[in-house]
Amino acid sequence: MAAKQKFTTTEYVRSLLSILLFFLLLIFFTPIILLLLILSFGKMANFVVEKIAPAVAIPVLKVAGINFKIKKHVDPIPAPAVYIINHSSTLDILTILALGLPRVRFVAKWELQYNPIFFILGRLTGQVFIRRKQSDKAVQTLKKNVQRIRKNNLTVMLAPEGSRKHPGIIGPFKKGPFRMAMDLQYPIVPIYFEGNRELSTEDFLITKSGTCTAHIYPAIDTSDWKLENLEDHINDVRNHYLKWAGIQNETFS
């Protein structure tokens, strides 16, 4: 785990203003989203994720003093696919929403539903909530959603590290995202968030000003993956993240 950041008074003020703005925007957009989803019988869920989510996240990032960039190392971005991200910062939730990727659904921790706004919006837009600490149930939940995701030609995004509280800069990768890619017969598209961890390691959304860049890399084909060699493939993918993070080697017992 990274050491606790030290923040200036200005950074605290900007962060608190950005948090306030985030919840005000959620309150403002929630009835609009509900109306759109009801009138469209749920068919505007993609519009919510692609257009409204960035409209919430990007102003919040700007108020926090964060310049958010997207750098595509592949164009067009492969879809449908399983998008995976590195997860080590409270900023990740904002940068994920700011991406505005087409037809994407997020796999999020179960506890987010304790917030009634997240619960309502998440359920109505078809997000996937898993119990991270119960790996068997998490895998079952992912498998239950495979058919729905494939039927609707959706893309799914999740963090193979599971939690942002993990050892090292890039934590150990869980099997769930990779098993899901195999079940869906989707490629894996790695997305690396550069700068998120350096700007905020706090439990709350207190951040430094700076730049965060989402690097979207070419797809990794999973069509010939087998369970027998899955661990090797996972290690290969994780090694890419270690390289992008500037780490030569990082293993865990």
TrEMBL record:
Classification via InterPro entries: Plipid/glycerol_acylTrfase
The protein, known as: 1-acyl-sn-glycerol-3-phosphate acyltransferase
Phospholipid/glycerol acyltransferase domain location: 81-196
Pathway listed: Lipid metabolism
Keyword hit for Membrane: yes
GO molecular function: acyltransferase activity
Native species: Rhodohalobacter sulfatireducens
Sorted UniProt keywords: Acyltransferase, Membrane, Transferase, Transmembrane, Transmembrane helix
Record-annotated membrane-spanning stretches: 12-40
Pfam families xrefs: Acyltransferase (PF01553)
CDD domains: LPLAT_AGPAT-like
This protein's record includes keyword DNA damage: no
